[in-house]
Amino acid sequence: MSLRTSLPKIVTDTVPGPKSTELLKVRKDNVTDAVAMLAPVFVDRAEGAMVQDVDGNVFLDFVAGIGVLNIGHSHPEVVEAVKAQCDKYFAPNLNVFNYEQYPRLAEKLNEIIPIEGEKQTILVNTGAEADENAIKLARRYTGRTEIICFAGAFHGRSYMTMAMTSKCHPYKTGFGPLPQGVNRFPFPYCYRCPYGLEKGSCDMHCAKMFEESFFLEYVAPDETAAIILEPVLGEGGFIVPPDEFVQELRRLCDKYGILLIADEIQAGYARTGKMFGCEHWSVRPDIVVSAKSVAGGIPVACVTARKDIMEAVSPGELGGTYSGNALATASALKVLEIMERDDYCAKARHIGDMTMKRFQEMKEKYEIIGDARGVGAMLVLEFVKDRATKEPAKTETKAIINECMQNGLVVLGAGVRDNCIRFLMPLVITDEQVNAGLDILEKAIAKIDAER
């Protein structure tokens, strides 16, 4: 059986095994602990949804590079596309020499990204850099300074994006002062409604609070350049905003001349069952920021906006040395071709249906599961000590993650309370691999739930 079609298998007595343990000492001596580590193992090779470490242990990857590998590890066609580009040139820099891949990728993104009217795209290197450029565009176009973001949001670790990111530790604590002009509004987290209301009977109270309170007491709408929103709240716990809430945002943006920015960095590229998460909305944004899975693991990020917004800036005001380099753009063009040809959106919906069915069954069995939610193959379980009080089960969540690791399944936490586990399995995963991973997960949940 090839690695691509294999199942989890732990061959060492403990995880990490001896070779990974030796390499961990090298990391400890030479790499700061400020760079986080989830799996204490070193990769030898990876294919599809499977990763083999240097000790021969085989892990099922339900993290996919934190949403970078929707197309899976080492997709053969993507590998060949990058190899072919390597034989020609790497990064001549678009500011110096033109090369075809950059405008071809921009052309493709302008075709598929759901913004009304004519669009233009710039390429940068990271999601944080893309968000920064979206804010630059919004401020220049509107002539305003203020930005509205949301509780629970994650937009990056650069200074501007730290200010927009919600969670204090480990992302912001001790790094201040942060840039001004960032204003935070409660996210419509229906499981933990910040207003103590219930979905279905709240009459979208959260959305009404913009004009009834927020625009009166916190930030004036005529000073607001943009509202930036993740179609599915990512680090904050994979929370899907009600469509009525986003409709109200669009109405407010139109009323007050504010731009609506969709941060698709984690939700984009087929993850939610549509190519972009904001396609689930009944309205369209003015700017879309995307990254992570667009190039199958090679760094590139994209800012796509209405043409009139892009034309508000002058030559030289956007861009960067490595931005949209030839390797990344060649990879991205192949990734998008494969995703459309092989209907990765349908793959995500299928994975989501399978997984959510199992989640609901688990929720019936284990009191520690407070909520199961998500869209497509962007799913989360939220763990609580008590379903009535919804007290977060932070320690138990960490224990479940560790138990999964020891048995060959890699999963990642989420949520500002550190009591969620998110699921971002590569979309090339087989049904057998999905079920194998969910079996490991359920055994871990059952064990920790019983020990409480």
**Helical segment tally?**
13
What is the terminal separation in angstroms? 39 Å
Averaged pLDDT: 96
Q: What would the principal axes of the Cα set say about the shape?
A: globular
* Subunit arrangement of the protein: single chain
Question: Radius of gyration in whole Å, from Cα?
Answer: 22 Å
- In spatial order, strands of the major sheet run 4-10-9-8-7-5-6
How is the CATH topology of the largest domain named? Answer: Aspartate Aminotransferase, domain 2
Note poorly predicted spans. Answer: none
Helical content stands at 25-40%
Which CATH-level-2 architecture of the largest domain?
3-Layer(aba) Sandwich
Give the beta-strand count.
16
The CATH C-level class name of the largest domain: Alpha Beta
The domain tally reads 2
Structural class: alpha/beta
Fraction in beta strands: 15-25%
CATH superfamily of the largest domain: Type I PLP-dependent aspartate aminotransferase-like (Major domain)
- Main pleated-sheet profile: 7 strands, mixed
Report on this model:
This protein has 452 residues and is an alpha/beta fold. Helices cover 37% and strands 17% of the residues. It has 13 helices and 16 strands. The protein has helices at 18-30, 64-67, 76-86, 101-112, 127-142, 159-164, 205-217, 243-256, 307-310, 326-341, 344-365, 394-406, 431-451; strands spanning 43-47, 50-53, 58-61, 119-124, 146-150, 182-185, 224-229, 259-263, 287-290, 301-306, 369-375, 378-386, 391-392, 409-410, 412-414, 420-423. Helix 4 packs parallel to helix 10. It is globular.
